[in-house]
Amino acid sequence: MTIYGIKTCGSVRKAIKFCNDNNIEFTFHDFRKEPLEESTVRNFASKVDVNLLFNNKGTKYRDLKLKELNLDEEGKLSWLIKENMLLKRPVISYGNDEVICAFDEERYKTLFL
């Protein structure tokens, strides 16, 4: 399992705590320090709806004034590739190339316990 996000994100911290509390092994990828490859972001988008991956409530979205652009799915994907901070966090890859995004403790319990 790999948790993708940034250390300062509350949802990422919750996901890490969930894994630690339940003795689930994981690696952490801080995409602020090491940006994601385009192929990784495209893989996420092939597994999870790009509209779910795209964080349109965050500071980066507002700072970039992306609401004004009225982005379609391809536009959102292009921005996610250019600016990883637009990803809804955390993104978790697990198992046989499965991907989920956002923190949902009940879903985590179902999937990982």
Oligomer: single chain
Low-confidence stretches: none
Q: What is the C-level CATH assignment?
A: Alpha Beta
The computed structural class is: alpha+beta
Average pLDDT score: 97
Give helix % range.
Answer: 40-55%
Distance between the termini: 13 Å
Query: From the alpha-carbon coordinates, what is the Rg to the nearest angstrom?
Result: 14 Å
CATH structural fold name: Glutaredoxin
The number of domains: 1
Order of strands, widest sheet: 2-1-3-4
Total beta-strand segments:
4
Percentage beta strand? 5-15%
Shape, principal axes of CA atoms: globular
State the helix count: 6
Report the major sheet.
4 strands, mixed
**How would you name the CATH homologous superfamily?**
Glutaredoxin
